[in-house]
Amino acid sequence: MSDNNTQQQGNAVQTTGHAWDGDLQEFNNPLPRWWIWTFYATIIFSLGYWIIYPTWPYANTFTKGVGNTITFQNDAGEEVTTHWNTRSLLIKDMQTGEEATKQKAYLEKVNAASYEEILSDPDMMAFANSMAKVVFADNCAACHGPGGDLPEQAFGLYPNIADDAWLWGGTTAEIEQTITHGRNGYMPAFGKNLDDEKLEQLANYVLGISGHSVETDKAAAGEKIFQGQEGGCYYCHGADGTGLKSQGAANLTDAVWTVANVPGAVKEEDKVAAVKRVIKNGVSRQMPLWKSRLGEEQIKLLTLYVHELGGGK
Amino acid sequence: MKFRFAHESIEINAGLLIALTLVVISIGGLVEIVPLFYIDETIEEVEGVRPYTPLEQTGRDIYVREGCYTCHSQMIRPFRDELLRYGHYSLAAESQYDHPFQWGSKRTGPDLARVGEKYSNEWHVQHLEAPRSVVPGSIMPNYPWLSETALNTSDIEGKLRALKMVGVPYSDTDEEYQANVERFGEDAAKMLDIHTAEENLIAQAQAGNYDGDRSNLTEMDAIVAYLQLLGSLVDFSKYDEGYFAEFR
């Protein structure tokens, strides 16, 4: 440090002429040449920029830029030319940009093809999957989990759509309907009409028809409520308990649970309690509709993606 | 030599230095800000945009209070990748009643300008109370107190009056009410009436049942009502894309 100081003082460096505390001086080194020239260059650049791009406000408008226009097509197919602005630039980019046109070519193919045709064409499926994955992550993953794999904590709130069991149906037409128009999964709460004993009996019956070992006399009593007017469960879940797709009523005979957290329960009595809770409190879940947010092609791609997630049914 | 002398006289005179600094800075400020008061051709003429209802405005105040804007912007920019992710770019008209606006470029979380109607109310409640219970990798903080804190509805009249002073057309007199009926329709105009603000706030919260619990009004009701509105007022299918470029 001190060496450095003496060395500099040895050179004849210009100072500002100020002196504080007797000997404290301020160097007045010129700025490096490259810096100065770059600085002048930016000023000249800005002059050009002012002329070519919209910049200066005046009165109640602004300068629009000279010789710098953008031409695009409006909905009616007419050519429209405007001064340079980011909105026109975006429209043009969507119409003629390299990425956009590449994507559009695929989207048009997807649009024209039927679900069966796309499903049997590996090239189109590869495109559908890669694009749908992104759309799914942006719009669906917050509820259904990344890649349709539901996080454990969200069990019961949202259905797992990566499995093979469908509430509203797993054909492409049914999935498309689900995504386009949304769904309301609704089951009334039976806590008011049925006492605890009856809920217990029903839970035993429901667990029984999906292959769990249960107390048979309770299950038999539960069956009567399930199939009779008192419970009326058969009305939505079907007499055989396999569910009703038009109502989004779950299949109770498979080992897949969407609301009642049976898989998370270890002991038999906890499983009964989980099922009881659902019958007591009912279910009200809402799948939003997407037709106002996503385009037809996007919904089609998502349908294919979800269809494949569920193993294709 | 002369120049150096003048320079020194500024540098050693703090008062003069401050005064001249202010002059130089305000030139930039004036050139950038003043024209904004005159250029109104950049605000798009679109149907549907209206001031916030008392409940939504209350939710908005909670949004600002909690600092949600430190991670979330509300401004979708006119680029292809933003369009694909979030939807139509934001219009100036859509934030014309925002004081202060929530634009910004700091996006720790996603842009929220079009989050309205994207998710269910239940999802918002769950996500605000405990984001990681629905989005495992989320770094958004928990806001459990929103569901526990009773909604303060008593100061809404004052808030609307303050906003009216800066130009938001909440109605105080009969004429203003009639003007709102013409401009926004009868249902909306009722919601913008300052005198019935508290009633309307409570009624909307109860009817909407945003937090899933009708027994009491909480801050969660208000913030979810606000989030569900964001970006949903303009029906873009009614407009030719080129139309919006005319306002640039």
Automatic annotation (TrEMBL), chain A:
Alphabetic keyword roster: Cell inner membrane, Cell membrane, Electron transport, Heme, Hydrogen ion transport, Ion transport, Iron, Membrane, Metal-binding, Oxidoreductase, Repeat, Respiratory chain, Transmembrane, Transmembrane helix, Transport
Binding site for heme c 1: C140, C143, H144, M287
PROSITE patterns referenced in this protein's UniProt entry, alphabetically: CYTC (PS51007)
Subcellular location as annotated: Cell inner membrane
Chief place of localization: membrane
Described purpose of this protein according to its UniProt entry: C-type cytochrome. Part of the cbb3-type cytochrome c oxidase complex.
Protein name: Cbb3-type cytochrome c oxidase subunit
UniProt organism field: Solemya elarraichensis gill symbiont
From TrEMBL, chain B:
Gene3D superfamilies membership: 6.10.250.2250, Cytochrome c-like domain (1.10.760.10)
Transmembrane regions: 12-38
InterPro entries (UniProt xref): Cyt_c-like_dom (IPR009056), Cyt_c-like_dom_sf (IPR036909), Cyt_c_oxidase_monohaem-su/FixO (IPR003468)
The keyword Transmembrane helix belongs to this UniProt entry's keyword annotation: yes
Superkingdom, taxonomy of origin: Bacteria
Residue stretches making up the Cytochrome c domain: 54-231
Keyword presence, Nucleus: no
Name of the featured protein: Cytochrome-c oxidase, cbb3-type subunit II
Organism: Solemya elarraichensis gill symbiont
